[in-house]
Write a structure and sequence with these properties.
The structure holds 2 protein chains of 2 kinds. Chain A has helices at residues 7-10, 14-35, 37-46, 67-72, 106-122, 142-153, 165-175, 184-196, 218-228, 341-350, 385-403, 431-434; strands at residues 86-91, 101-105, 130-133, 156-159, 179-182, 208-212, 231-238, 243-249, 256-258, 263-268, 282-288, 299-305, 307-308, 320-321, 326-327, 332-334, 337-339, 357-364, 367-375, 408-412, 427-429. Chain A is an alpha/beta fold. Chain A has 2 domains: 1-329, ANL, N-terminal domain (Rossmann fold, 3-Layer(aba) Sandwich), CATH 3.40.50; 332-434, GMP Synthetase, Chain A, domain 3. The longest helix of chain A has 22 residues, at 14-35. The termini of chain A are far apart. By secondary structure, chain B is an alpha+beta fold. Chain B folds into 2 domains: 4-70, 2-Layer Sandwich (VC0802-like), CATH 3.30.2130; 71-143, ACT domain (Alpha-Beta Plaits), CATH 3.30.70. Helices cover 33% and strands 38% of the residues of chain B. Chain B contains 5 helices and 7 strands; from the N terminus they run E-H-E-E-H-E-H-E-E-H-E-H. Chain B has helices at 17-27, 53-62, 83-93, 121-130, 138-143, and strands spanning 4-12, 32-39, 43-50, 67-78, 98-105, 111-118, 134-135. In chain B, strands 1, 2, 3, 4, 5, 6 and 7 form a 7-stranded antiparallel sheet that branches. Chain B is globular and about 45 Å long. Classes of the chains: A alpha/beta, B alpha+beta.
Chain lengths: 435, 144
């Protein structure tokens, strides 16, 4: 029997949801037009006024916002409320350029935490649960978002933040955590450390994990589920729209329900900007319907995925998005071929290796090279060179089939590839150093 | 079957790896009877015969080494000229394939021991029995 945090919204009829979205969009566009000169200029350039937007059917008339806009308008250019009405900022790590700072009113925080509460309840969370939050706290949205959601649900919340893995496991065993929230790569590391410390899944009470903030594969999901003895659920979000909780997985584990009463999704052709029908792969675009302080209209996420309205067995009518196939930023173009790190991860786990890997891309004599460092496991190892090389060749062959290009595999000692406590660094693109 | 367990360790081609592995064995008072190393450009495989293979394997894995235990045949022969050639004839005549072998001398009794990794241990056991060649057990190795 499925549980809901807000049944009225999560199971709302499509007609009622459309009506709600239409009303909210009309009001939001007006709010933004009147309070954000940056976006007003974009609308004026396109010759659109708030009067042209009567429902979500008119959304396509509005201009897009991109990360470049956010950088240009940094820090206050997209703020729609006086600073005196704002109570919090959160920020991206800024590793890919200038950081993005997002502002929140108290109402924005409440709605965001409400979205996270829906995610926690969807994985079976109740006030009797012990929720261990090991996303980073601070500027990163992961910790504060799930922390707030956990409070709303009434779980006993363990605000661990990331790092100090042995202490994480100590708390997990001593206090009987039942729900774990962190990045999937950190969940894998916690599982590995748990077993290294001599514990088994019988020593912990975890039943579910809510993992997000980086791309991960179905194979990684199964590997974490086995290692921690739990059901692993995906959660999606981005600082620009609020943080985690934009969408979340239910017990069906077949994609994430979007909290579309707050975030209106579209899928577009990333080349032309044309809106694509449900079921087609394209770039995910979100419009914040309710955010007051930092309301982004048609924000291009750079995440590639598919939307589906197929009725879900959990009873929710909220539209579902597929696990992002990769952020267009993560995509590597190697010898003209598009390669996603998630494809490499899929092959590694299928072939029995650990999800710890490091991809090195370089350019030698004007040709791109792809090197994948993989940790050797006891299961894959054997006492003869011939057998080890055969395994290596088999792995390279599976990579070639998946990627379409030949990588060079390097087998390295176990635990020599740095473990991640937050977002994992999987790729070193040395070509950038030459440019 | 008369076999003993060899400890096979994955060694990445990086300075200090071999030293790190032998340090672990030293710290755990593991006595090495014989060893050999096979290597390629990128990695090597260290093969060890020790007095306590279970403990060695456990300690190495705990220290994050990749380790497997492999069943190998160990024989003991007189350390005289031409004896190895006789052994190889026995192997050859029995149709056994040797993946690799390495040898070590006993400390006192003029004997040599040979560790053989073959494709069929049972066949090797039978061939050595028939030829009257002594085969060692793990207890024999431990007692050395």
């Amino acid at each position: 029997m499925a549980n809901y945090w807000n049944k009225e919204i999560e199971c709302m009829s499509r007609e009622d949801m459309k009506k709600l979205q239409d009303e909210r969009l009309v009001a939001q566009v007006k709010h933004v037009y009147e309070n954000v000169p940056y976006y007003k200029n974009l609308m004026d350039e396109k010759g659109v006024t708030p009067d042209d937007i009567k429902s979500t059917d008119d959304l396509h008339k509005l201009p897009f916002l991109t990360k470049a806009d956010l950088r240009e308008a940094y820090p206050y250019g997209l703020l729609a409320k006086p600073l005196s009405d704002c109570v919090r900022i959160q920020s991206t790590s800024g590793t890919t350029g200038k950081r993005v700072v997002a502002f929140y009113t108290q109402n924005d925080i409440d709605l965001w935490e409400d979205c996270c509460a829906r995610a926690i309840v969807a994985v079976g969370g109740t006030k009797d649960d012990v929720c261990q939050v090991c996303y980073g706290y601070g500027l990163f949205t992961g910790g504060p978002g799930l922390n707030g959601g956990s409070h709303k649900v009434g779980c006993l919340t363990l605000p661990m933040s990331s790092g100090n893995t042995e202490r994480q496991i100590q708390f997990m065993t001593d206090l009987g955590s039942t729900i774990l929230c962190c990045t999937p790569s950190y969940a894998a590391y916690i599982g590995e450390t748990l077993h290294d410390m001599g514990y088994t899944t019988d020593d912990i009470k975890l039943k579910a994990g809510i993992f997000g903030a980086e791309p991960w594969t179905e194979e990684m999901r199964r590997s974490i589920e086995k290692s921690l003895g739990i059901k692993a659920y995906d959660i999606y979000g981005l600082t620009e729209t609020s943080g985690p909780g934009v969408s979340f997985e239910c017990e069906e584990q077949t994609g994430m329900h979007i909290n579309e009463d707050h975030f209106y999704p579209e899928i577009i052709n990333p080349e032309t900007g044309e809106v694509l029908p449900d079921g087609e792969v394209g770039e995910l675009v979100f419009t914040s319907l309710t955010k007051e302080a930092f309301p982004l209209i048609r924000y291009r996420t750079r995440d590639l995925c598919v939307l589906t309205r197929k009725q879900c067995s959990c009873g929710r009518t909220l539209i579902k998005m597929s696990k992002p196939m990769g952020r267009s930023d993560d995509m590597l173009i190697i010898r003209g071929v598009n390669v996603f790190p998630s494809q490499i991860e899929t092959v590694l786990i299928e072939q029995g290796y650990t999800p710890n890997y490091l991809i090195e891309v370089d350019r030698v004599n004007n040709t791109d090279t792809l090197d994948i460092n993989v940790e050797m496991t006891n299961e894959q190892f054997s006492d003869t060179i011939k057998d080890v090389q055969a395994k290596e060749k088999e792995l390279a062959g599976a990579m070639k089939t998946m990627l379409g290009i030949n990588p060079k595999i390097h087998l390295v000692s176990p635990k020599t590839i740095t473990r991640s406590e937050g977002k994992a660094v999987r790729v070193i693109d040395k070509r950038k150093l030459h440019d | 079957m008369k076999t003993i367990r060899q400890i096979s360790v994955f060694v990445e081609n990086k300075p200090g790896r071999l030293s790190a592995i032998t340090q672990i064995l030293k710290d755990n008072a593991i006595d090495i009877r014989a060893l050999s190393i096979a290597d390629t450009k990128d990695f090597g495989i260290l093969r060890i015969i020790a007095d306590d293979p279970d403990k060695a394997c456990k300690m190495l894995r705990q220290a994050a080494c990749t380790v497997t235990l492999t069943e190998v045949v160990a024989i003991c022969i007189d350390d005289v000229k031409g004896r190895l050639s006789d052994v190889m004839s026995v192997i050859n005549d029995s149709g056994i394939n040797v993946e690799y072998l390495y040898a070590f001398l006993s400390k006192s009794d003029n004997k040599a021991s040979i560790i053989l990794r073959v494709d069929d241990n049972e066949k090797a056991n039978a061939a050595f029995d028939a030829a009257g060649i002594a085969q060692l057990s793990e207890d024999d190795i431990k007692a050395m």
